[in-house]
Amino acid sequence: MNDTAAPKFEPKELKKIDTDRQVCLIRFSPCGQFLFGGGYDSIIRRWDMTVDEPQLLDPLVGHRGWVQKIEFAPQGEVLYSVDSWGQLCAWPYRDEAASPIWSVEAAHDGWIRDLAVSADGSMLATAGRDGSVRVWSAKDGSLNKELPQNEHDVRAVAIHPDGKSIVYGDLMGRIQHRDLASGKLVREIKFEKMHYYDRIQDVPGIYVLQFDEKGEILICAGGEPLSNTNHQGIPVLHQIAWASLETKRTQTFGAAKDGHIFDLAWHRDGYFAAVTSGNPGSGQFLLVRPDEDEPFFNFTKLSNCHTLALHPDGKQVVVAATNRNSQGNGAVRDKEGSYVGNSSPLHVFSLEAAS
Amino acid sequence: MNPQFCNSAEHGVSRRRVLGAIGGTTAGLGLGALGGMVQPAVGEELAKSDKQILLLWLDGGMSQLESWDPKPNTRFGGPLRSISTSLPGVHISELMPKTAKLMHHLATVRTMKTEDANHSSGVPKILRGHPKNRGVVYPFWGSAVAKVMGPTKSGLPPYLWVKPGSGGFISKYAGFLGAKYGALALGDGKPPTNLVRPETLSEQNANERRELQQLFNQRYAARRRKGSNEANSYVYDVAEKLMQNQKLFDESLLPDKDRERYGKHDFGRHTLLARNLIEAGVRFVQVTSYGWDTHGDNFNAHASRMPKADQVYAALIEDLIDRGMMDNVLVVMMAEFGRTPRINGSVGRDHWPNAWSLSMTGTGIKKGVVVGETLADGTDVKTEPYDIGAMFHTWYQAVGIDSKKVEFMNGTQPLPIAHDDMAPVKELLA
Q1: Using a CB-CB distance cutoff of 8 angstroms, which residues of chain B are in contact with residue A331?
Q2: Å from B79 to nearest chain A CA?
Q3: Mean pLDDT computed over every residue of chain A
Q4: Which residues contact A325 (CB under 8 A, 6 or more apart)?
Q5: Contacts of A22 in chain B (CB under 8 A)
Q6: Which residue in B has a C-alpha nearest to residue A302's C-alpha?
Q7: Cβ atoms B417, B403 nearer than 8 A
Q8: Residue A340 gets which letter from DSSP?
Q9: What integer pLDDT is reported at residue B210 of this predicted model?
Q10: Between A and B, how many CB-CB pairs are < 8 A?
Q11: Measuring CA to CA, which residue among B30, B38, B102 is closest to residue B311?
């Protein structure tokens, strides 16, 4: 991680792409041409981002639950996706009418929380609400390994760049480091504040686990939840030194209304971009240097930001927020009397410093 | 001073402390104690009834979409799946696998359509059965049952409320019936404090104190309104009855197997206590679980909460069946409303009185029915909507009360016990 040379600038919003549905996650394809969005409606939308007005192309259809995670093969044009009904799929993402290369319909019993791809592209790891962590062949979707069953919902998973270790974090704020070959527990660390229990409800705090490119730092991001009925919590990011598994630095971003860091991406210039969502209307788009307490850019004009996609060239980032006034009791209807749902407008920002 | 009637402070059980433990003052209990009769002949007949009611109240509003009326793979359906149940063709949320196996014992209503989308007005309106406005404050359901049916032959207080947090006597729930018919709340399932007779006070002394207290009460009553005295005496009767039944509250006496089946969380512990209270003869027990107001993170919230509610409900139903209590006990699980189909920016669902669900079983209820249908995306009812007033008629009928005939008497004013313009839902009645 380069934490000394990050430039400071104010991103400029270039355009907004309206959507008619809500998305869980957006990601750019490695080639940079396509933006993919996994939806609440089980569809993976794709936009061609190389034209002035991003063009919505035919979606990837085949999932049935929320498509909450998307990853790409480091080589080749393959997209991996998981859904909340337990399905794992591999897609040729450029094909106009793409159908899965392979699919595992019951990769987990229900909600798959996270998906990670090994640096060499050979393995996929999935973690689920069913408490299981599984390793799959990226080539054909065959099950390579099942890690020991966990008592709690496993919310995030990451594979170390060396391909020898796997880490995963659970509902209770516990992160386990296991040897990928043997499945043996090597070390663990627990962030007590990344779990909250109130009135028969466990509230999760871990949302993101990511290694930096060299595998020296493990990032654990999410929130320190403070309420069970509203999405209240303090957005938090822990930088964990991989060698010692000790927390090197903890950064918090905002107040209780700000909730949690939902998504995060490292920029090659040595800073990270993150988005938060908390109380209705509360959202932050943050650019933060890892060695500073305060973000050098904190954009709070977007409502409930759930995900972001960093373009491979590092010059653009897209933030998926939520339409204004997304909350409200009773039936909200439009002029025609139809029940009104919400959507995830996509905000495209330039990350280039003004010359 | 006669040592048998020494200063109460020496023994730690004073009149004031007992009253305090029950959570009110005599003055407070006396307020509003004027009204609330039932026609005497009817009242006497109902008092002989062995029917009881257990209400599981999910305060804040459980999501119908993550429980009784899932809409998987639709725009507003959320991330979770549905599962099949013991009723062919009927699916409920995957978060309720235990209850799914018992659906043939239950009656489910999927077309509740009520008026209030706010907790402050919705909770009392639902718990009062949405009576027609007649310028009086109607009692909550438990108070109404306490009045109409009275205690069972067990003599135990007719309306107990098991809840997290603090307890006390909640007289305001009685409305115009008068404070006596309020709820005795057992905070965290614990009985009122100071129930244990101090070792320094012999049983004989305690009885003598009781006799003296009754004498004082009679003199007190002679100078006061009947209702005030009724409430005043009632707290002593309650305290004494609970003193005689302290074992009911001793969790350590419960088999581990039961505690495992219900769950060691608050809702499980409290519902297990409620089962014991019902079994001991309490007429109406409400168990409240708080925190269902999932404006944020609705799906993780229900993923954590629903399995516990599922565990509790299934364990309770199995117990009532095993113990042969289904013929006597009406069980209802509900909240003040459901949750919006649309998912807000906090990944939550807001308040939704427009098309929500509730569940019931037990005495007088037809088993294995699902009443009503909502639209495919859950955004409204598709078949006949039901107000809570219709449910109150249904539930009164189920426990043997003719809700169209039995009336409260507020002084000389007869008042219907359920909404005049509504009627029982025949599909729900056995």
Answers
A1: 352, 354, 379-380
A2: 5
A3: 94
A4: none
A5: 343
A6: B345
A7: yes
A8: P
A9: 78
A10: 147
A11: B102
- What are the respective helix, strand and coil percentages of chain A, to the nearest 5? 0, 50, 50
What are the residues whose beta carbons fall under 8 Å from the beta carbon of B373, sequence distance 6 or more? B110, B111, B381, B382, B383
B266: chain A residues, CB-CB within 8 Å: 199-200
Chain B residue numbers with beta carbons less than 8 Å from the beta carbon of A129 are 303
Give residue A7's pLDDT band: very low, low, confident or very high (50, 70, 90): low
Q: Say whether A200 and B265 touch across the interface (CB within 8 A).
A: yes
pLDDT score, position B64: 98
Tokens of B414: 């007869």
A320: β partners: A307, A346
Phi/psi of residue B428, each to 5°?
Answer: -90, -15
Q: Which of B422, B364, B420 is nearest to B395 (CA)?
A: B364
Which CATH class for the A12-326+341-350 domain? mainly beta
Residue B15 — pLDDT band, cuts 50, 70, 90?
very low
Within 10 Å of residue B197's Cβ, how many Cβ atoms? 15
- Decide which of B244 and A126 is more confident: A126
Tens of pLDDT, residues A47-91: 999 998 999 999 999 999 999 999 999 998 999 999 999 999 999
Q: What is the mean pLDDT of chain B?
A: 87
For chain B, how are helix, strand and coil distributed in percent, rounded to 5? 40, 15, 45
Answer whether B344 sits within 8 Å of A329, measured CB to CB: no
Q: What is the mean pLDDT of residues A329-344?
A: 93
Closest Cα partner for B287 from B302, B301, B304, B308?
Answer: B308
Q: CA B153: distance to chain centroid?
A: 19
Query: Which of B59, B75, B337 would you mutate first to test chain A, the one with the most A CBs within 10 A?
Result: B75
pLDDT of residue B202: 82
CB contact under 8 Å between B379 and A68, yes or no, is no
Given an 8 Å threshold on Cβ–Cβ distance, is A230 in contact with B296? yes
- pLDDT confidence of residue A263: 98
Amino acid in position B398: A
Query: Residue ranges of the domains in chain B?
Result: 31-193+245-428
Q: Give kind and range of the element (H or E) at residue B217.
A: helix B203-222
From chain A, the residues in CB contact with B118 under 8 A are 329
Q: Is B31-193+245-428 a CATH 3.30.70 domain? A: no
Amino acid letter, residue A9: F
| Mutation to test the A interface, candidates B297, B377, B380, most A Cβ within 10 Å | B297
Residue B348 has pLDDT above 90, yes or no: yes
Tell me whether residues B164 and A41 touch, CB distance under 8 A: no
> The sheet that has A233-241: what strands, in order across it?
A206-211, A217-225, A233-241, A246-252
